[in-house]
UniProtKB/TrEMBL annotation:
Any single Gene Ontology cellular-component annotation: plasma membrane
GO MF entry, a single one: electron transfer activity
UniProt protein name: Formate dehydrogenase subunit gamma
One GO process term, biological-process aspect: formate oxidation
Protein family: Belongs to the formate dehydrogenase gamma subunit family.
Protein's organism: Paramagnetospirillum kuznetsovii
Signal sequence, start to end: none
Pfam families: Ni_hydr_CYTB
Recorded superkingdom: Bacteria
Length: 330
């Protein structure tokens, strides 16, 4: 393996030697003297390596000139930023938000249906809406787990499971990450088409903000339509930031199609940074939709929610549909 790598390196150097206009050593002249580089117009070997180290492109047959760069110094800057500040601040943010959610749960506790479940159910999301939600949410979970492994796995997971298993998991995760990205894009299109009109600002949003969404104390239930201001913020974050993450991800899947090497390095930093922002938002969303609030999870599983829950959290919406989409509790 080492000899193969060594031979490949020799071939690359030889190719770049030719790309920089170098020729084999000149034959001795008739009087036995070898002409100097200045006399022959050649570039010396130190000049060649200096040019390579400074990022000057050589020649690769059938490829754009920018791809003939053997050593790209900006790559060191990118790697330092990616493995340094980006990873460090992302880790702090993830730990901080997780601790904040845990503290909120300990202080506020689970948000219960104050009057207790009514036993009557109202349809909140139909089948198409639930499919759109899970296309987006399911693919994002895969993207989030595999992406966090790419960012933190070498330091957190590899020491526990070993290099061999970690390399296989990361290899498989890379393929899952790439494929799930296209499912996520499809989900974005579906939920935008279904819910964009319901996530525009309305007259109830300011009241919801002033009351902290009714999350801070019991008995405080500001009126809201189908989606409250918090859900609207979450929706537009997913659409806008998700679109940026998806577009930068696609550009990385097809190298040199949308940008050259330096541009791809910038896109990778944007992709990773914005993906972490999405994860931070989604952590709160998952909390409220599961252990944080009684009766919320059924909206995206069966599609139905308890009528009392709907009246407490989306009273304006209930007024619009009450009596039209109800059924006895099962």
């Amino acid at each position: 393996m080492r000899w193969t790598t060594f031979l490949a390196l020799l071939m690359m150097v030889a190719g770049f030697w030719a790309g920089y206009g170098l020729e084999p050593a000149l034959a001795a002249s008739s009087d036995g003297d070898v002409p100097t580089a200045a006399q022959s117009g050649q570039v010396t070997l130190p000049d060649t390596w200096r040019a390579i180290r400074q990022g000057e492109p050589g020649f690769i047959a059938g490829q754009p000139q920018d791809r003939g760069v053997l050593i790209q110094s900006e790559g060191e800057t990118w790697r330092a930023a990616r493995n340094g500040k980006l990873t460090w601040y992302a880790g702090l943010a993830l730990v901080g938000v997780s601790l904040a959610i845990g503290a909120f749960y300990l202080i506020r506790g689970k948000i219960m249906i104050e009057g207790g479940p009514s036993g009557r159910m109202i349809l909140r999301f139909n089948r198409i809406e639930r499919i759109g939600h899970w296309l987006t949410a399911g693919s994002f979970l895969v993207l989030g787990v595999t992406g966090l492994n790419i960012m933190f796995g070498r330091w957190l997971l590899e020491p526990i499971i070993g290099k061999t298993l970690f390399s296989w998991l990361t290899w498989a995760g890379k393929w899952l990450h790439n494929l799930s990205g296209f499912v996520f894009i499809a989900g974005l299109v579906v939920i935008f088409a279904l819910w964009a009109k319901d996530n525009l600002w309305d007259r109830y949003d300011w009241g919801w903000i002033m009351h902290g969404g009714g999350l801070l104390k019991m008995g405080d239930h500001p009126p809201a339509a189908k989606f409250n201001f918090g859900q609207k913020t979450q929706f537009w974050m997913v659409i806008v930031v998700g679109s940026l993450v998806a577009s930068t991800g696609v550009s990385l899947l097809f190298p040199f199609t949308f940008a050259q090497l330096h541009g791809m390095q910038v896109m990778q930093l944007i992709h990773a940074g914005l993906a972490v922002v999405m994860v931070l938002f989604i952590l709160g969303h998952i909390y409220i939709g599961t252990v944080g609030m009684e009766g919320a999870s059924t909206a995206v599983t069966t599609g139905y929610v308890d009528l009392e829950w709907a009246r407490e959290h989306h009273s304006v919406w209930v007024e619009e549909v009450e009596g039209k989409q109800t059924k006895p509790a099962e």
